[in-house]
Amino acid sequence: METITTDICIIGAGPVGLFAVFEAGLLKMRCHLVDVLPQVGGQLSEIYPQKPIYDIPGFPTVNAQELVDNLMEQIAPFHPTFSLGERVEQLHQLDDDSFIIQTNEGTEVNCKAVVIAGGLGCFEPRKPAIDRLEEFEGKGVAYMIRNPEAYRNKRVVLSGGGDSALDWTIFLANIASEVTLVHRGDTFRGAPDSADKVFDLAASGHINLVLQSHITGINGNGHLQEINIIDHDKNKASIEADHLIPLYGLTPKLGPIADWGLNIDKSAIEVNTFDYSTNVPGIYAIGDINTYPGKLKLILCGFHEAALMVQSAFKHVYPEQKLSFKYTTVYGVTAF
Amino acid sequence: MITLTIEDRDGSRRPVEIPEDINLSLMDVLKASEHHILATCGGMALCATCHVQVVEGPESYFHPTDTELDLLDTLPDAGPDSRLACQLRIKEDMDGMVFRIRGEA
Ligand SMILES: Cc1cc2nc3c(=O)[nH]c(=O)nc-3n(C[C@H](O)[C@H](O)[C@H](O)COP(=O)(O)OP(=O)(O)OC[C@H]3O[C@@H](n4cnc5c(N)ncnc54)[C@H](O)[C@@H]3O)c2cc1C
Ligand code: FES
């Protein structure tokens, strides 16, 4: 098992978590970031990468993904480290008051301060309401394709009508022995080119297209074997399959953070606005995940919270050192 | 007054009264009447978390627009009568309509 040692572990690599690295770096504190998404940027990269943002000081307009890219450039001199695609599950405090953070992939981070910048929570796959679905997770049911080779010569059913359902159907058509795409409508609004390809593959018999239908149930003995579907005219059918891949995108859920003994009000962590500390010393919460009287869920506000938070985190991490606040214009940005 | 009936996830129904001259979306009304609906993107037709189903009402309200269909296709539980609450402007002919909340809590 890998253990990473750092000053601050930041949970969430959204804009606020990223900017916290910069503020910590100015005080020469090292950061490790963990995010369940495979890329940095939080809501900006996941929900609205192409949207212009108008309320970042100094930028009359900036595209969301461009802001994330700029933040990455800004923090590069401080060499933050990342565990992406990993969800933070557990948090323990050790006898020396430091923390151990554990992810679902077994990564451990030992740090002196924890900064929760978890936004709306973990982005998790949207799951269709099918009985026994969770029972078959890892036994034929998966919500994302990590290794396409796992589907070679297998019978695969995909469901969904967005771009990822179309793209993976096309991709797996060359790998799997049988590919079926189940979609509730009879047209696709994904990229027209991909939709055309899927219709062509169906017409030439390379894939099965089951339109105006949805999945009602799944069966199997230890591993997925059968998928039941129903069409809009209530006709029922079943498909023999080894794998089911529902592709309905991601949705945020507060997730494991809710169980860490922090004071929570309506899915947000209560903080002291003096330094954005939580009820547990050494744990801070900044950005969309926190709540206090007058809270605004804006990037700008999260940046401000990050700046105040690190002042207190510094004293927590280095209680014996004196912190004298200086503007960056005095020192510049000194990398380490 | 426009009166709508909102059916929650548990099947319970509650009437909501809205003044006629107000320019709000159904999503705004649901939030203001303390119905639990995520509406993560604040009504920009980006997140699909404000999913509702038309239960009763004029025929024209049963059909989502293309913008809505783009997003409804990404939901596992959307049906032919699904709509995005943020894309529905409150209008007088909605009086008496019944909507069911489908979006995630
Ligand atoms: C459509 C839309 C438009 C917006 N427009 C604007 C705008 O114009 N201006 C503005 O200021 N704000 C805007 N906002 C709000 C802005 O996006 C948020 O305020 C901002 O993203 C908050 O940043 P954050 O870093 O706190 O959280 P997020 O961006 O939500 O990032 C949090 C990250 O934490 C991760 N995470 C959570 N829990 C865990 C865990 N247990 N383990 C691992 N990772 C975890 C998540 O995967 C996520 O990547 C908009 C929001 C939306 C949805
Ligand atoms: S609030 Fe996001 S799509 Fe309606």
UniProtKB/TrEMBL annotation, chain A:
<feature type="binding site">
    <location>
        <position position="88"/>
    </location>
    <ligand>
        <name>FAD</name>
    </ligand>
</feature>
<dbReference type="GO" id="GO:0050661">
    <property type="term" value="F:NADP binding"/>
</dbReference>
<keyword id="KW-0285">Flavoprotein</keyword>
<dbReference type="InterPro" id="IPR022890">
    <property type="entry name" value="Fd--NADP_Rdtase_type_2"/>
</dbReference>
<feature type="domain" description="FAD/NAD(P)-binding">
    <location>
        <begin position="7"/>
        <end position="293"/>
    </location>
</feature>
<feature type="binding site">
    <location>
        <position position="329"/>
    </location>
    <ligand>
        <name>FAD</name>
    </ligand>
</feature>
<keyword id="KW-0274">FAD</keyword>
<dbReference type="InterPro" id="IPR050097">
    <property type="entry name" value="Ferredoxin-NADP_redctase_2"/>
</dbReference>
<feature type="binding site">
    <location>
        <position position="35"/>
    </location>
    <ligand>
        <name>FAD</name>
    </ligand>
</feature>
<dbReference type="GO" id="GO:0004324">
    <property type="term" value="F:ferredoxin-NADP+ reductase activity"/>
</dbReference>
<dbReference type="Pfam" id="PF07992">
    <property type="entry name" value="Pyr_redox_2"/>
</dbReference>
<comment type="subunit">
    <text>Homodimer.</text>
</comment>
<protein>
    <recommendedName>
        <fullName>Ferredoxin--NADP reductase</fullName>
        <ecNumber>1.18.1.2</ecNumber>
    </recommendedName>
</protein>
<comment type="similarity">
    <text>Belongs to the ferredoxin--NADP reductase type 2 family.</text>
</comment>
<dbReference type="InterPro" id="IPR036188">
    <property type="entry name" value="FAD/NAD-bd_sf"/>
</dbReference>
<keyword id="KW-0560">Oxidoreductase</keyword>
<dbReference type="GO" id="GO:0050660">
    <property type="term" value="F:flavin adenine dinucleotide binding"/>
</dbReference>
<keyword id="KW-0521">NADP</keyword>
<feature type="binding site">
    <location>
        <position position="288"/>
    </location>
    <ligand>
        <name>FAD</name>
    </ligand>
</feature>
<dbReference type="InterPro" id="IPR023753">
    <property type="entry name" value="FAD/NAD-binding_dom"/>
</dbReference>
<feature type="binding site">
    <location>
        <position position="48"/>
    </location>
    <ligand>
        <name>FAD</name>
    </ligand>
</feature>
<feature type="binding site">
    <location>
        <position position="123"/>
    </location>
    <ligand>
        <name>FAD</name>
    </ligand>
</feature>
From TrEMBL, chain B:
<keyword id="KW-0411">Iron-sulfur</keyword>
<feature type="domain" description="2Fe-2S ferredoxin-type">
    <location>
        <begin position="1"/>
        <end position="105"/>
    </location>
</feature>
<dbReference type="InterPro" id="IPR036010">
    <property type="entry name" value="2Fe-2S_ferredoxin-like_sf"/>
</dbReference>
<dbReference type="GO" id="GO:0009055">
    <property type="term" value="F:electron transfer activity"/>
</dbReference>
<protein>
    <submittedName>
        <fullName>(2Fe-2S)-binding protein</fullName>
    </submittedName>
</protein>
<keyword id="KW-0479">Metal-binding</keyword>
<dbReference type="GO" id="GO:0140647">
    <property type="term" value="P:P450-containing electron transport chain"/>
</dbReference>
<keyword id="KW-0408">Iron</keyword>
<dbReference type="GO" id="GO:0051537">
    <property type="term" value="F:2 iron, 2 sulfur cluster binding"/>
</dbReference>
<dbReference type="InterPro" id="IPR001055">
    <property type="entry name" value="Adrenodoxin-like"/>
</dbReference>
<keyword id="KW-0001">2Fe-2S</keyword>
<dbReference type="Pfam" id="PF00111">
    <property type="entry name" value="Fer2"/>
</dbReference>
<dbReference type="GO" id="GO:0046872">
    <property type="term" value="F:metal ion binding"/>
</dbReference>
<dbReference type="InterPro" id="IPR012675">
    <property type="entry name" value="Beta-grasp_dom_sf"/>
</dbReference>
<comment type="similarity">
    <text>Belongs to the adrenodoxin/putidaredoxin family.</text>
</comment>
<dbReference type="InterPro" id="IPR001041">
    <property type="entry name" value="2Fe-2S_ferredoxin-type"/>
</dbReference>
